[in-house]
Every structure is written in C-alpha cells, then in structure tokens.
Design brief:
The protein contains 8 helices and 19 strands. The chain has 305 residues and is of the alpha+beta class. It has helices at 4-11, 47-59, 109-118, 134-139, 182-185, 201-218, 238-244, 273-291; strands spanning 21-25, 37-42, 64-67, 73-75, 80-86, 94-97, 100-104, 121-122, 143-144, 147-148, 153-159, 165-169, 188-195, 197-198, 225-228, 251-252, 255-257, 264-267, 300-302. It has a 5-stranded antiparallel beta sheet. Strands 1-2-5-3 form a 4-stranded mixed beta sheet, covered by helices on one side. 43% of the residues are buried. The radius of gyration is 20 Å and the shape is globular.
Length: 305
C-alpha cells in the first residue's frame, strides 16, 4: 500500500482540508460510538470529487470502503488500514416531483420522511425513526414496522469502481431481507428515485408520531447502538430468542444486551468493539446450544475480530 501522506496529498484537490483525517477515530462517525481508527478518512462533496478519490485510491492500491451515517457499522478495535469515504453534503439533496422523491445517498431517512409528509406522500413513514442514510438503507434493504426500502425504490444511480455511471431499475437491485446486489457488485449508490403514494398529510404525520412513540417506548434510544443487532432467523424473532435464553441485561465490559429490548446491543459507556463482539459470540453460542439457531449479525463488522 502507498504511503498515506502521499495519498492524502493526492486527495487534497478533491476534499476540504478538515475532511481529510489521518488515524480517524471511527467511534466519532458511528452510532455505536466505539471501534478503532481508519488510516485515512475523506469526505468528497460531489460526484466528480468522489470519482477522483476512488480513482486515486485504486491507482495507489489503497483499500477503501464507503460508509453512510454509520448507523449499522462497527469497526473492530484494530481499525481499518485503508481509506474510509463518507459522502458529503452534496449527496444529501432531496427533491419532490409529484409522488416521486429524488434523494442523494447521504440524505437521512428522517429528512426524506419529513419531506414526504410535508408533500402529503405516504410510504416513508416506517423509516422516520431509522437513523441511517438512504444509501445505507438501500444497501441493506432497511425496514421496520412492516415497511422496507424494496417497497418504494424504483431506480438508483450508481458509480462503479472503474468510474462508470449506471442507472439500475428496482428489479436489478435484488432487494431481499437485509440484502441487495451492492454487496456483490461493489457499486456505489449516488441517488435514488422513490415512488410514494399521495395521502392525507395529517394521516401521514399521525402515523409517523405513532411509530415514533412505539420506538421510544420499546427501544433503548438513550444509549449508543446500531439498532437491531441480529438478523431475524426464518421462523423466529432474534430478540425473543435472546430473551428466552436468559441473556437480557448480560454485560461484557461496556457492552450490554439491552434490558429494554433484547434485540439490541448497547454501549453502556466505555465499550470497546471487542466488548461488543465478545458479547455477540456469547449470545450466538448460547442461543445455538439452547435452540439450535445460529444468529447472524445484521450490523456490518469491519476489520479483524
């Protein structure tokens, strides 16, 4: 791998000085608030800059990954040895045209949900409390309360790692439970077209308030976490399996199975990524031995662990 100072210098024309950070603590950029450092962190503000950053990283043979709002990521304590790219404000634009919303990959789901409600459009209510960005939500086909991205995404625009732009229709995205084609093809989401349904504004807002109350009552939102930690096994609910195994409240270091919702792993304070991962392994082993079900993390774990 090339010298990181050399890479940083090459990226300066395409990222602001304060958005190029060496040994960047990823705890500052993820909702878990723990984990190691990225060797270099960069925030390109537009598509041309992003394409240049990727081209330079590849020319200099530096591994890189794209991240959204960091709400479904856990970086191991050993960190990431390459370049972490986070899309800047230029990728956060939201435009409404009739019953269609066009939004950049860095737009927050909460902001898109609010824009939909303001324009009397239904279909985004399920996402109003998900703390992620649109790109990450499509990447993992995020869902909650009976809704998922698959129901509303009609097309996306992407950039591949050779610098070519693509438009993919919904049927090409292979959206299924917590999965999309982007896990395999490595393309980078730039923006999406969302097809919603005209509705009464007050009914949409009422539904959003109702879901917010449910979320607040049932989820441990006062602690750092990455939301539901485990994928739902077919025929089961992950949180119920964890609770029935007697693991609610189990603590390793600063990481804990939430006493409010057993599907959540929370950072009670000072947790390391290793604490979280060790707790995950205990849960997996216990649930497997009790119920014969291997729980898989929904959270993307980056790095060696």
């Amino acid at each position: 791998m090339t010298d990181l100072k050399q890479l940083k210098e090459a990226l300066k024309p395409f990222c602001s000085e304060d958005s190029l950070i060496e040994n960047c603590p990823m705890a500052d950029h993820t909702t878990f608030k723990c984990g190691g450092n990225a060797a270099l962190f960069a925030v390109p503000e537009n598509e041309a800059a992003l394409a240049a950053v990727i081209r330079i990283a590849q020319e200099q043979q530096v591994p890189f990954l794209l991240m959204g709002n960091g709400s479904n990521l856990l970086f191991s304590d050993s960190g990431y040895p390459g370049l972490v790219i986070r899309l800047g404000e230029g990728f956060s634009k939201i435009r409404v045209s009739g019953s269609t919303i066009y939004a950049g990959a860095a737009a927050l789901l909460s902001a898109i949900s609010n824009a939909a409600a303001a324009n009397s459009l239904s279909g985004m209510e399920f996402a109003c409390g998900i703390p992620g960005s649109l790109g990450g939500a499509i990447f993992m086909n995020a869902g909650a309360y009976g809704g998922e991205m698959k129901q509303i995404v009609s097309s996306v625009r992407t950039l591949d790692r050779e610098g070519h732009f693509h438009i993919l229709a919904a049927e090409e995205l292979q959206l299924s439970y917590r999965h999309s084609v982007f896990e395999e093809n490595g393309q980078i989401l730039l923006e999406a077209e969302l097809s919603l349904t005209p509705a009464d504004k007050e009914e949409v807002l009422s539904r959003m308030r109702q879901l917010t109350l449910q979320r607040t009552a049932k989820q441990p939102l006062s602690y750092p976490s990455a939301g539901s930690f485990f994928k739902r096994p077919e025929g089961y609910f992950a949180g119920k399996l964890v609770q029935d195994a007697g693991l609610k409240g189990l603590t390793v270091g600063g990481a804990q199975i939430s006493e409010l919702h057993a599907g959540f792993v929370i950072n009670k304070g000072g947790a390391t990524a290793t604490d979280v991962i060790d707790l995950m392994k205990i849960v997996q082993e216990t649930v497997m031995s009790r119920f014969g079900v291997m729980l898989q993390p929904e959270v993307k774990i980056i790095g060696d662990y």
